[in-house]
């Protein structure tokens, strides 16, 4: 098996540490930006549902402002966002290049998308459940946690899965412009040196990451589907 791999991926095996490093960098970008985006997306998506007209705590002005900001964030192409946020990345993490420098644009590019996923998931909670919770005296925060979030676990898992897969694509794009990770590895070691086996190895690893995320998301959603 090893000889077969060396035959079809000769350039990859010439410098395996570079592939491992690129994979670790991609996983790091995915983990850090994914956690931050999840927290912010969950917050913003919940605020949209809670503050909408007819929500459990309507604040139309806040709702409209947040809605427009999320729309603005989603309308900017990620490749432009990378360059637009260079000064912000330097301010927050001290650098605008490499893996660390990619975290800020990845979070900014992912959060609006994920917030919409959260909004759609929470919108599926039955109005009857909300009214029942209000009838027994639950407060706003308690309704959010015990009704909205708990009843939407399956939908939240699906939305998170979609978002993480999208984040993998964004991290690869960021890597192609110097952020590190598998995108940078495929571009520098593969495309620029015309080594197709390196590009195929990168594709295989990215597909494997997507598959693992999909399986985990499917299991969580299935276990919480009533």
Q: How would you portray this structure in words?
A:
The protein has 226 residues and is mainly alpha-helical. It has a single domain (2-223), classed as MetI-like fold, CATH 1.10.3720. The chain is built from twelve helices and no strands. The model has no long low-confidence stretch (mean pLDDT 88).
Annotation keywords:
226 residues, mainly alpha, MetI-like fold, 12 helices, 0% strand, elongated
Average residue pLDDT: 88
Backbone structural class: mainly alpha
Task: List the helices and strands in order.
Answer: HHHHHHHHHHHH
The helix content is: over 70%
Rg value:
21 Å
How far do the termini sit from each other?
44 Å
Name the beta content range.
Answer: under 5%
Helical stretch count? 12
- What's the domain count? 1
Instruction: Write the CATH homologous superfamily.
Output: MetI-like
Using the coordinates above, name the CATH class: Mainly Alpha
Low-pLDDT runs: none
What is the overall shape?
elongated
In short:
The protein has 226 residues and is mostly helical.
List the helices and strands and how they pair.
Elements: H1 2-8, H2 10-14, H3 16-51, H4 60-75, H5 78-84, H6 86-93, H7 98-123, H8 127-135, H9 140-151, H10 153-179, H11 181-191, H12 196-223
Helix pairs in contact: 3-4, 3-7, 3-10, 3-11, 4-7, 6-7, 7-10, 10-11, 10-12, 11-12
């Amino acid at each position: 098996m090893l000889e077969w791999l060396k035959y079809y991926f000769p350039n990859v095996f010439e410098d395996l540490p570079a592939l491992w490093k690129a994979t670790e960098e991609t996983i790091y970008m995915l983990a850090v930006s994914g956690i931050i985006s999840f927290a912010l997306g969950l917050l913003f998506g919940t605020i949209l549902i809670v503050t909408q007209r007819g929500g459990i705590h309507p604040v139309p002005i806040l709702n409209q402002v947040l809605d427009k900001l999320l729309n603005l964030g989603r309308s900017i192409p990620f490749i432009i966002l990378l360059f637009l946020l260079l000064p912000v990345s330097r301010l927050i993490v001290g650098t605008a290049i490499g893996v660390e420098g990619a975290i800020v644009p990845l979070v900014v590019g992912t959060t609006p998308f994920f917030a919409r996923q959260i909004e759609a998931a929470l919108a599926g909670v039955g109005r009857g459940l909300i009214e029942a919770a209000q009838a027994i005296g639950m407060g706003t925060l308690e309704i959010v946690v015990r009704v909205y979030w708990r009843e939407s676990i399956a939908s939240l898992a699906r939305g998170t899965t979609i978002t993480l897969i999208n984040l993998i694509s964004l991290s690869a794009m960021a890597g192609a412009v110097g952020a590190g990770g598998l995108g940078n590895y495929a571009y520098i070691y593969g495309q620029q040196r015309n080594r197709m086996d390196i590009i195929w190895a990168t594709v295989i690893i990215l597909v494997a990451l997507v598959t693992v995320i999909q399986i985990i998301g499917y299991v969580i959603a299935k276990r919480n589907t009533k």
